[in-house]
# Entry
Amino acid sequence: MKLNPTKFPASTALLTRSGWSVFIIALLVVCAVAPALNLLVPKDNLLHLSDYAVGLIGKIMCYAICALAMDLIWGYTGILSLGHGVFFALGGYAMGMYLMRQIGTDGNYKSNLPDFMVFLDWKTLPWHWTFSDSFVATLILIVVVPGLVAFVFGYFAFRSRIKGVYFSIITQAMTFAAMLLFFRNETGFGGNNGFTDFKRILNIPIATPSMRMLLFVLTGITLLGFLLMARWLILSKFGRVLQAVRDAEMRVMFSGYNPLGYKLTIWTISAMMCGVAGALYVPQVGIINPGEMSPANSIEIAIWAAVGGRATLIGPIVGAFIVNGAKSWLTVAYPEFWLYFLGLLFIGVTLFLPDGVVGLVKRFSRTDALKSGDRQ
# Structure
């Protein structure tokens, strides 16, 4: 008797054909269309993309990376963090330290030390500024510092089996404590003013239109790259275990898996993503201060993921654009109502759109498909 060979389930494609088409279109828009509309189209032309729009979209793309990182731990692993702002800020401070060193003697005090250190009568750089003049070392620190902090924190928290609302409260306490620490002048991070007045990056002027557009393109490519990486993680065996941990952690343990390693790994990866987002954010916005570590900022990251739709990957990115687009308009038109709008938006999504905007779109798409099938 001839035996049939064992058939393994076919691996899921990273993206569908239509998915790859959308991805390539997005890549072309970021790398070609947006630069052309900003740099080549005259400013008086209706199709011109203004410098303000470039800066705003670049900033929101940094936020979208944080929302995607939140989706990996909250949407797919069931870990709600209210402290991811600290990882974003750590990456931003690592880049800010390099940018401050790039100022050189062009500061107000004409010193090789940053202006705030001269003002505070510091004579030498603190030890943690040792590698701040190296761009390569800065790139490493942008990833390593948030990752290391997240690893140490996550190891003790997950080993102690802290979860649910208790974990959320602890993460919020962590970011609040970090904010208070960075507010202190003696820590060497600029106190409440932070870092600003950046002039160069890699000895190239940072305020030129070409550099601004280069940072925009790099941010867009990074966001799309992280989206592919997140998709690959979720479709892998690692991702399936994460979702099992989210749905029934005890059953996962009884099946022979140790959730600690999986939770700690995705938690650290998520923190590193936020660190990269913070590093891309700082040169585009031109400032970094302890306010980026405020608990409110971390809560906003969770709101972006909830509004767009958890456990969808694309949803948090959409949510980041919706919320921050509305914020940029409301804070100008109706500044006194912005926080009320944000609160109502979160409550409304929680009560009426548990799957977010993307979930609502999918629901309508399925309904239309069923109706068209009935008509046929």
